[in-house]
Amino acid sequence: MTIVSLRAIMDPAFDERYGVAAINIVDDLSLDAVLEAAVELDSPVIIQTSLKTVKAIGAVVLEKMFRARADEVAVPVAMHLDHCPDREWISICLAAGWSSVLFDGSHLDVAENTVQTAEVVAEARGYGADVEGEIETVLGVEDGIGSDVAAEVHPVEVSAQFISSTGVYCFAPAIGTAHGLYKGAPDLKPERVTELVELHPIPMVLHGGTGLSEAQFTDLIARGCAKVNISTALKIAFVDSHREYLEANPSKHDPPSMLGHVRSAVKQVALHHIGMFGSAGRAHAPTATTG
Ligand SMILES: [Zn+2]
Q: Comparing C-alpha atoms, which of 230, 190, 228, 183 is closest to residue 210?
């Protein structure tokens, strides 16, 4: 039994300044491949689901699938709901057993976002679950959520006020990253992470990680980004590995071989990122407790 709360994984990561990969899975195969990578590296891992994936598979089935698989592995695992602007789905996932949720109220003005996020924090507390908050939309549409228009970036004091008023466990600051693939080099604002952690020392969450360099990851993690989201890289590996297999084997109709090829490609993405973030060998961090 290694399903734990988000904070059981992220408290030690934030204290010791390593990053934990939060990887968006899309089905049972990608879930298995990510867990296998975490076990191989003896690393904690956060399994994330987009709202689109939850709607496609169903919250109850998805949670049962996660629980069945995570129960079998010997590393701490938490399940997190990624960007969710819909309060009804937040409630469905909390009731189904998610460890944590990102209530994405970035489309609201900060005052209304603060009120609603505080309500979500109170609701999550009833389930022993944690909440991630954000006030600025991350550039780029991901699984139907987000915007291709750069959002207004508020002074860090506004974010710090939001954090203390809502009681969120972790926060996704606007630091110049974007969802999807970067068209040019991103103009990062890493100092905003440092400033926010100084004002309010809670774990920060890095969105739009796919495509950043190892040096950029290392720097942001050292500043306090303890949760590092990876979504686009997995989707690319998942889809391209299907394509590669089909192009290389046009006349074969052998699902286990094709799925084995896909699983191995997805696992490589997880191994690569977990290995870069410094969480390998940390599965048994002293403060990690079973939740
Ligand atoms: Zn994101």
A: 230
Measure the CA–CA gap between 238 and 235, rounded to whole angstroms.
Answer: 5
Report the C-alpha gap between 29 and 182 in whole angstroms.
Answer: 27
Q: How far is the CA of 100 from the centre of ligand 1 (A)?
A: 14
Distance (Å, whole) CA 216 – CA 187: 11
**Phi–psi pair at 23, nearest 5 degrees:** -105, 125
This prediction has a pTM of 0.94
Give φ, ψ of 139 to 5 degrees.
-60, 135
In the Cβ-directed half-sphere of 148, how many Cα atoms lie within 13 Å? 6
pLDDT tens figures, 75-100: 999 999 999 999 999 999 999 999 99
Question: Among 163, 154, 153, which residue's Cα sits nearest to residue 198?
Answer: 163
How many angstroms separate the alpha carbon of residue 251 from the centre of ligand 1?
Answer: 39
* The architecture CATH gives domain 6-277: Alpha-Beta Barrel (3.20)
Q: How far is the CA of 82 from the centre of ligand 1 (A)?
A: 7
Whether 82 sits among the annotated catalytic residues: the reply is yes
DSSP code at position 230: E
Residue 291 predicted with pLDDT over 50: no
Average pLDDT over residues 208-226: 95
| Amino acid at the residue 74 | A
Where along the chain do its domains lie? 6-277
Question: How many angstroms does the Cα of residue 255 sit away from the middle of ligand 1?
Answer: 32
Question: Which of 11, 82, 104, 143 is flagged as catalytic?
Answer: 82
Mean pLDDT within 123-152? 85
